[in-house]
Design goal:
alpha+beta; 4 helices; 224 residues
């Protein structure tokens, strides 16, 4: 066999390998397996109570830390009970104090809108995933994960990807690039697994470079 034919044969084998991975992952999604797993996992997660810690970081400095005990009520609604918070008090009175307070209120409103935007992406909506699948980009495992990327998932110009563990078929990570007020923002969720196999968001990072803002949300101490 000539080098030319060997090259073509190797390329063909690589194509078959990649195609096989793509078909396997595509089949899982198209068949509704991943979408079903996301829905089932969300249902399983509602059995748990857990601790949630939220840090607001502005220009590299932690400005606010809040802890809450979280559980779901009988209707499936998330209930968050504050436990403690650490927030510097505004000092003094007069014009300077009012300016500081105004900036705090503006930032609070921005954070609320940023978190609300994230809530439109997460947790992933099984129906939206199925609808976005025809234009999804599926890549073979790299480091144990296959990636399914969606463009224009929620709004024009955004991207959301699902990193799916090729062994467990569970989500390992969800990176999202979006925008708020025409400024780029990003969300990154890292998942871990409980003893019963339930996936949970161990760390969520929200970033707005234009505001020098980062919000870190960690969850721990899961129990039924």
């Amino acid at each position: 066999m000539s080098l030319k034919h060997i090259g073509r044969y190797s390329t063909f084998l690589l194509f078959l390998f990649v195609l096989g991975i793509r078909v396997e992952v595509y089949g899982q999604v198209a068949g509704g397996e991943i979408a079903k797993d996301i829905a089932a996992n969300s249902q399983s997660l509602r059995q748990y109570t857990y601790l949630q810690t939220t840090e607001v970081i502005l220009k590299g400095e932690v400005k606010n830390t809040r802890k809450a005990q979280v559980h779901y009520d009988s209707t499936g609604q998330k209930v968050s009970v504050p436990l403690a918070s650490a927030e510097p008090a505004t000092e003094g009175r007069g014009l300077k104090a009012r300016i500081v307070e105004k900036k705090k209120d503006e930032m609070k409103e921005y954070v609320e809108r940023l978190v609300a935007l994230m809530g439109q992406y997460l947790p992933p909506n099984p129906d939206k995933i199925k609808a976005a699948l025809p234009t999804a980009q599926i890549t073979p495992p790299a480091g144990g994960d296959a990636k399914i990327a969606f463009n224009n998932y929620l709004k024009q110009g955004d991207t959301m990807a699902l990193s799916v563990n090729s062994q467990s078929k569970k989500l390992d990570q969800i990176p999202i690039q979006s925008s708020l007020d025409n400024d780029p923002v990003s969300f990154l969720v890292d998942f871990a697994r409980l003893p019963d196999g339930t996936n949970y968001p161990s760390m969520t990072s929200i970033k707005s470079p234009s505001k020098s803002l980062e919000i870190k949300v960690t969850t721990s101490d899961y129990h039924k």
